[in-house]
UniProtKB/TrEMBL annotation:
GO BP annotation list: monoatomic ion transport
InterPro entries linked to this entry: Poly_export, Poly_export_N, SLBB_dom
This protein's record includes keyword Lyase: no
Topology of the protein relative to the lipid bilayer: Multi-pass membrane protein
Record's subcellular location: Cell outer membrane
Presence of the UniProt keyword Repressor in the record: no
Residue ranges occupied by any SLBB domain in the UniProt entry: 170-245
Protein name (Swiss-Prot/TrEMBL): Capsule biosynthesis protein
Family that this chain belongs to: Belongs to the BexD/CtrA/VexA family.
Protein keywords: Cell outer membrane, Ion transport, Lipoprotein, Membrane, Palmitate, Polysaccharide transport, Porin, Signal, Sugar transport, Transmembrane, Transmembrane beta strand, Transport
């Protein structure tokens, strides 16, 4: 009895810290959340915060996944905006005169067609007009500029300016498409899907194809499937945009007290948290801590700020929370499966590619394991003593 008491006291004091395990307990993950490396007493740690998966957080994450490009670049349903002439554009200038013997007319024709290319300085030359600034002007503005210069030189002149080629309105499309190319934009609104189609279309299924749009210093990435299903994500492209299409089969990793620990393919257009756990065989009834389902993820900054609030977000930055190369921050989502509504909330929380889902073991598992480890020498000693007594009896 004294030995058993000693074991129990030892177990309580150590908290079973020395027992082999498959990962941290729920209490450890929760305790370390929101702390800096200095507070934890460790160097080079990753500072993270923890968010409960509830109706609000699940809805916010789901909405952001569906509107990533819209948030970054603006809604895609608007018009193309003001289209101006740029350097390298090819134009056709048609000049009409009322008289039969003018600067640009003859007895056989009352019009002259001039083809020109806008030079690097933004200008091009017109006979009897000189160097004309074209870059930055609309076709109508360019027409009016030429017409005003000819009014006192030609006989009742009129002018038409037509765009022949728009070298200044190119978009680069590369990656997992039919043929990577430089796509010239027309003078009407064109969306991401239309431009990708001009490049031969995607070479993989929409649910495993990612589209990255680079515009100036802004970058946004979305699943092609989301762009197809959400018209607001099919944003209008602009001259100079770069579009990268990549095939990346979506996977997530499951660890901990589930029946399978492995990397799992999505194998579907969408996947929620409950479906992901089910693909791993569900939780192990003998070891699982139903309060401890966690999703480890580098999350988009807009989502993190919305979930934490500015004050908490800034506090975490001061504690050392740092973004990865894509500007995303480390966040841990926690789902408590002891609540009945978790079976509803879990259906609306989307799993993202490269997520790590961890199912924590129940604290009692470590306690039982500790007792079994300590009990081994006691059992061995008892067996040895029993064997010695039997030998003594045989000797008598």
């Amino acid at each position: 009895m004294n030995r058993l008491n000693a074991v129990l006291i030892c177990a309580l004091l150590t908290g079973c810290q020395a027992v082999p395990g498959e990962g941290p307990l729920s209490s450890t993950i929760t305790k370390d959340a929101g702390l800096s490396g200095q507070e934890l007493g460790r160097k080079n740690t990753v500072a993270y915060d923890i968010i409960d998966v509830d109706a609000r957080s699940a809805r916010l994450v789901s909405d952001y996944v569906a509107t990533a490009l819209n948030r970054r670049f603006g809604i895609g349903g608007g018009g193309v905006g003001r289209v101006v002439i740029g350097v390298g554009d090819a134009l056709k200038v048609t000049i009409f005169e009322a008289g039969s013997d003018g600067l640009f007319s003859t007895t056989d024709s009352k019009q002259t067609n001039l083809e020109l290319v806008v030079q690097p300085n933004g200008k091009a030359s017109i006979p009897y007009v000189g160097s004309v600034q074209f870059a930055g002007k609309t076709l109508e503005q360019a027409r009016q500029t030429i017409l005003d210069a000819l009014v006192k030189k030609a006989v009742e002149p009129d002018v038409i300016v037509t765009s022949m080629a728009t070298a200044s309105r190119n978009v680069t499309v590369s990656g997992a498409v039919g043929h990577s190319s430089v796509v010239p934009l027309s003078l009407v609104s064109e969306t991401i899907n239309e431009v990708i189609a001009k490049a031969g279309g995607p070479s993989a299924q929409p649910y495993e194809t990612y589209v990255t749009l680079v515009r100036g210093k802004k970058t946004g990435t979305a699943l092609l499937k989301s762009i197809i299903e959400n018209p607001s994500e099919n944003v209008n492209v602009q001259p100079g945009d770069q579009i990268f299409v990549t095939r990346d089969p979506r996977t997530f990793t499951v660890l901990g007290s589930t029946k399978l620990n492995k990397r799992v393919d999505f194998g579907a257009n969408d996947l929620n948290l409950l479906e992901a756990v089910a693909l791993a065989g569900g939780g192990n009834d003998n070891t699982i801590d139903a309060k401890g389902y966690f999703v480890f993820r580098y999350e988009e900054p807009d989502v993190v700020m919305s979930l934490l609030g500015n004050q908490r977000f800034n506090a975490m930055l001061n504690k050392g929370m740092a973004p990865d190369r894509q500007g995303r921050y480390p966040i841990v989502y926690r789902l408590d499966m002891t609540h009945p509504d978790s079976l509803i909330v879990g259906q609306t929380f989307p799993v993202k590619s490269r997520d790590v889902i961890y199912a924590s073991r129940h604290p009692s598992v470590d306690f039982v394991k500790f007792l079994s480890i300590v009990a081994r020498p006691i059992g061995a000693a008892s067996s040895a003593a029993s064997a010695a007594r039997n030998i003594e009896r045989l000797g008598e």
